[in-house]
Design a protein that fits this description.
By secondary structure, the chain is α+β, with helices and mostly antiparallel strands. It has helices at residues 2-9, 136-139, 160-163, 167-170, 182-191, 200-213, 217-230, 232-235, 246-250, 282-285, 290-299, 315-325, 340-347; strands at 11-15, 18-23, 33-37, 45-46, 49-53, 58-64, 69-73, 81-83, 89-95, 99-104, 117-123. It has two domains: 2-131, Sandwich (Immunoglobulin-like); 134-357, Cytochrome Bc1 Complex, Chain D, domain 2 (Orthogonal Bundle), CATH 1.10.760. Bound molecules: heme C and copper (II) ion (CU).
């Protein structure tokens, strides 16, 4: 029975007050929208904007005109669909909330891959996103363009495991950790009379332990997956800012001219492009709060080459990414599974070398 199958295939995805109902259609209705993908420099998506109504199925007939692209809708857990050159694939989406949704390419099809985005305007009745979904960096009025160097840096990677046992003595009245940079927390700990006996290094280990306690192996695993799919191409697998796309950014304006999002017409030149941030840089990272990093990810660099991800990720995905970025600073030990430090250990596990502890 068709209806029964439809019911089984209905997936309800709630995110940031928005929800998308998805059904994979068997037949192509007459009013299906044809959507073609091309590399951003050749025009990106055609059309670049689609209209839809709440509760009315939107059928998309999709193909690629050049290389393999992927189609996904931001802020929904709906799986991406690959678009192969010359092949057509049909998908039906039903929105149960009005709003502006972003569809984007999920395949690294070129240096301007991330500019392959389009919007679906969904009209109709329903709830708008609640006011408390205003991102933290806006509520805090953070200046995202300000440098945030830490004036104190540890001489080696702070390790949460070394702090175990000392934590009890710390009893941090944490406040909102997301609004504080690691160096701010370090200073708070340093000022405590109870900590005068601890070395600077021990206090950094405490900070690593406090940061580890604020996340979970599951969130780190999700952050790691999202990072690998969306960030590593520029920032590098190891966070050093040396991903495969970093060169084309460093090459500057000519190699990286800004492309109109929907038209594919060359616009202003990307004169502000800089190298992707090195997340292993202590001075830079230990002076940043989670709210700041999340803000940068949401808003992007506005011309620096750092894309904006606000319409793509859900709130919890954004925090998972931020949590993962800290693993380039802190050694959470193998219990945290996905920290960069433990990954390095795993990668070298094939070698018989063991490190004394
Ligand atoms: C196309 C290349 C590119 C991709 C992809 C990219 N970034 Fe960036 N990113 C940059 C560049 C260049 C900068 C430095 C300029 C700036 O801060 O605006 C940067 C800066 C940042 C910063 C600011 C760090 C600071 O100290 O101010 C954060 C945080 C960040 N990126 C996170 C991410 C995350 C998370 C992803 C994946 C979801 C990502 N980036 C994907 C190029 C990229
Ligand atoms: Cu693409």
């Amino acid at each position: 029975m068709r209806a029964e199958w439809g019911a089984r295939l209905l997936v309800v995805l709630g995110a940031v007050g928005l929800a998308v109902l998805t059904v994979f259609a068997v037949r192509v209705p007459a009013d299906a929208v044809e959507l073609r993908g091309r590399m951003a420099d050749d025009g990106g998506w055609t059309p670049g904007a689609i209209m839809a109504r709440v509760g009315e199925p939107l059928t998309l007939r999709m193909t690629s005109d050049d290389v393999v692209h992927g189609f996904a809708i931001g802020q929904s857990a709906r799986p991406a669909v690959d678009l192969l050159p010359g092949a057509w694939i049909t998908t039906t989406v039903t929105f149960d909330q009005p709003g502006k949704y972003t569809y984007y390419c999920t395949r690294w099809c070129g240096p301007n891959h991330w500019r392959m985005r389009g919007t679906i305007d969904v009209a109709g009745p329903g709830m708008r996103a609640p006011a408390d979904s205003v991102p933290l960096f806006l509520r805090l009025k953070l200046d995202l363009d300000q440098a945030h160097p830490s004036d104190v840096v540890p001489t080696e990677t702070p390790a949460a495991a070394r702090a175990d046992g000392l934590l009890a003595a710390v009893a941090l009245e944490s406040g909102d950790l997301r609004t504080q940079s690691p160096v701010q927390v370090w200073r708070t700990l340093r000022k405590r009379p109870a900590n005068t006996g601890l070395t600077d290094r021990q206090l950094w280990d405490e900070v690593a332990a406090v940061w580890r306690a604020a996340t979970s192996p599951e969130r780190l695993a999700e952050g790691r997956r999202l990072y690998g799919d969306n960030c590593a191409a520029c920032h590098g697998e190891t966070g050093r800012g040396d991903g495969v796309m970093a060169k084309s950014l460093a090459a500057g304006p000519a190699a990286n001219s800004m492309v109109g999002e929907h038209t594919g017409m060359p616009g202003m030149s990307g004169h502000g492009t800089v190298a992707p941030t090195d997340f292993t840089n202590r001075r830079n990272m230990l002076g940043a709060s989670a709210a700041f990093l999340q803000g940068k990810i949401i808003r992007g660099g506005m011309g620096t080459g750092m894309p904006y991800w606000g319409p793509i990720f859900t709130e919890s995905q954004l925090w998972a990414l931020v949590d993962y970025l800290w693993t380039f600073q802190f050694d959470y030990g193998s219990s945290a599974g996905s920290s960069a430090a433990s990954r390095t250990k795993r990668d070298s596990a094939s070698k018989p070398a063991t490190r004394p502890h």
